[in-house]
Amino acid sequence: MPRQRKPAPLWLRPERKRSGKVASRAAWLILDGGKQYPTGCFEGDFAAAERALAEHNIAKHTPSRSLRDLEAIPVADVLILYLEARRRLIEASDPIGYRRLKGRIGRLNEFFGGKRLSDIKGPLCRDYVVARKRTGGARRDLEDLRAAIGHHQTQGLHRGVVKVPLPEKGEGRDRFLTREEAARLLWVCWRYRETQTVHRGSNRGQAVQTDKRPLRHLARFILLGLYTGTRAGALAAASFHRGKGRAYVDLDKGLFYRRAEGNRVTKKRQPVVKLPSHLVAHLRRWAVTPRRDGTMPEFAVEWNGKPIASVKTAFASAVRLAGLEEDASPHVLRHTAATWLMQRGVSIWEASGFLGMTPDVLINVYGHHHPDFQSGAAGAFKNRGKNSVSLGKLLGDRPGA
């Protein structure tokens, strides 16, 4: 039996200099079959380089499509077939969602790819949770593994039953931003200037501020999130023009069609939302503000003239600079919108429709912020009959009370 080929390794290509100047920075490359493949990642981006390596290993693998026993099926085959199926369904309509799925499949392939389907049992899945360190992230990854195995079985490609145990769901976060915190976050995003280190001249080694404002695009993202409660993926796809894969912002009617054109309806509701008037005013101004090259923007939130792919890194920087608790993620904007609606006394029915959230979830997670929360039950104890006696008075009449 031929020896199984080892997976391709990463190699850090050293910095290159010409005439004493840096010609190219140190960068991560993939070494495979005597060839070098660029990852597009510099020395400090090891995590991104690992993701590129995982995607490289997936892309070069050709899975079998014949019916086999569990002991003969590499998990890598199962993952790749599932990724191919999902690519055909969602890559064009939801490129951001597909890119995230690709990253999760890459992580799963790193850990499980060399295993056989018969190895997927409780102990191995628990080892993955430990290795992943974040229980919530591990659960999401294992849900994909479960879906991939289910897809493999429905295609008639394996015999037997494989169960993927999931870690317990974590408690829902109730972290939200106060109006003062939201204002600080927006102020930081608008005012922050990039700092660079001087490498030549009398000021060599000093950090100086530039005219670059690398967080200003995030201010738009935050405003949209706070005042619509929309998930990050739909905010990233928000466009002033209709098109496949775009969530359309109708500036004439003040409506935001959150579900991107061509996307299927999923359990994560994305209903049309009526935009607040002050937000519409911002959006209309953004739509007619030219980019640096003079062209007009197509998306509500852009970075270097293109729609954003993710704001996790920028959001974490803004949270740190604003002095907020560093566990705040972009999803806190949705929590904040729901909390503010409840604090303002908006009806459960109207708020749930606005947020794209079931009334049950809204009541269970955010209902205690509503001014009418359990007011009837609490008020019932005040309505005593004419002949009733106060419990406080009874206790006060007892000796030693």
Which strand order spans the largest sheet, edge to edge or round the barrel? 8-9-10-11
Specify the number of helices.
15
How confident overall, as mean pLDDT?
86
Q: Write the element-wise H/E pattern from the N-terminal end onward.
A: EEEEEHHHHHHEEHHEEEEHEEHHHHHH
Distance between the termini: 87 Å
Overall morphology = globular
Would you count the extended β strands for me?
13
Determine the strand fraction and express it as a percent band. Answer: 5-15%
Secondary structure category: alpha+beta
| Sheet of most strands | 4 strands, mixed
Indicate the radius of gyration in whole angstroms.
27 Å
Q: Which spans of ≥5 residues are poorly predicted at pLDDT below 50?
A: none
Roughly what percent helix? 40-55%
Note down, in words, how this protein is organized.
The chain is of the alpha+beta class and 401 residues long. Helix content is 43%, strand content 11%. The chain is built from 15 helices and 13 strands. The chain has helices at residues 46-60, 75-90, 95-112, 122-132, 135-154, 179-191, 216-228, 232-236, 277-287, 312-321, 332-343, 348-355, 359-366, 375-380, 391-397; strands at residues 10-13, 16-18, 21-24, 27-32, 35-42, 195-197, 207-209, 238-239, 247-250, 255-257, 273-274, 302-303, 306-307. A 4-stranded mixed β-sheet has the order 8-9-10-11. A 3-stranded antiparallel β-sheet has the order 1-4-5. Strand 4 and strand 5 form a beta hairpin. Helix 6 runs antiparallel to helix 7 and helix 7 crosses helix 11. The longest helix is centred in the middle third of the chain and has 20 residues, at 135-154.
